[in-house]
Amino acid sequence: MQNKNSSKSLALVYVWSKKIRFFHWLNVLCVFLLIAIGLIILNSKALGVTSDGKILLKTCHVLVGYAFCINLLCRVLVGFFGTGFEKWGATLAFNKGFASEFKKYRLGKTKHYKGHNPAGKLMITAMFLALSVQMVSGLVIAGTDIYYPPLGGYFKEQVAIDSTQIKLIKPYSKVNIDAEKYQAMRDLRAPFITAHVYSFYLLLLLIPLHVAGVIFTERKEKSAITSAMINGYKTLPKD
């Protein structure tokens, strides 16, 4: 009888829209592939990868990166123009009232949340910052390393000896390359590489923490937050 009464006091609440769920799982796939390829690139010398092999790996990394960037930019737009829990105000930390909300959560005064709980909002904020740094720095590196869009054409013109022979400029080739301008380009991209690498390591830390947080919250709240990212519905008390 207790189980029956308990089930009657619960309700399915639609929380995560199709747009949010699509972004989440495509982002998971892209980040997983980018990390896998990135680790091979970082250890290419130890693995004996040739120059042509390294260019191929970087090309694959950039192509997956485009899907990652488009997906992230779409999520940014949805955060501003979407509805309900799509909006940034319902997703990120440090919005109005977050401090009191976090205090109640820390003291255990609020046990269920339709969207992310305060700890989840902190995690999502940190992950979006890391993902944004990856996106911006990755696009700069793609343009300065293997001359891919959107910045590759610009940097080709910057390092070319003869601007009428831009097509001769290829990754890792010195043909039609001005040595001083090329070095200046490499110096320009250095901080972006540093940011890319450190945000990469930050993601390697945040991802398992995120998974652990989901497991902890699932056990604590019992609101089906894992399946909610598949079907959109959380199980919450009717009150």
Question: How would you sum up this structure, described in words?
Answer:
- The chain contains nine helices and two strands; from the N terminus they run αβααααααααβ.
- It is mostly helical.
- The chain has one domain: Up-down Bundle (Fumarate Reductase Cytochrome B subunit), CATH 1.20.950.
- It has a two-stranded antiparallel sheet.
- α2 runs antiparallel to α4 and α6 packs parallel to α7.
- The longest helix has 43 residues.
- InterPro entries: Cyt_b561_bac/Ni-Hgenase (IPR011577), Di-haem_cyt_TM (IPR016174), Hydrogenase_cytochrome (IPR051542), Ni-dep_Hydgase_cyt-B (IPR000516).
- It comes from Thalassotalea nanhaiensis.
- It is a multi-pass membrane protein.
- Its main location: membrane.
Strand content: under 5%
Mean pLDDT: 91
CATH homologous superfamily annotation: Transmembrane di-heme cytochromes, Chain C
Number of strands: 2
Per CATH, the class reads: Mainly Alpha
- Indicate the CATH architecture: Up-down Bundle
Contiguous helical run count: 9
Q: What is the element string, with H for helices and E for strands?
A: HEHHHHHHHHE
- Helical content stands at 55-70%
Sheet with the most strands: spatial strand order: 1-2
- The backbone outline, from C-alpha atoms, is elongated
Low-confidence runs of at least 5 consecutive residues: 1-5
CATH topology: Fumarate Reductase Cytochrome B subunit
Main β-sheet description:
2 strands, antiparallel
Distance between the termini: 20 Å
Radius of gyration: 23 Å
**What is the number of domains?**
1
Secondary-structure-based class equals mainly alpha
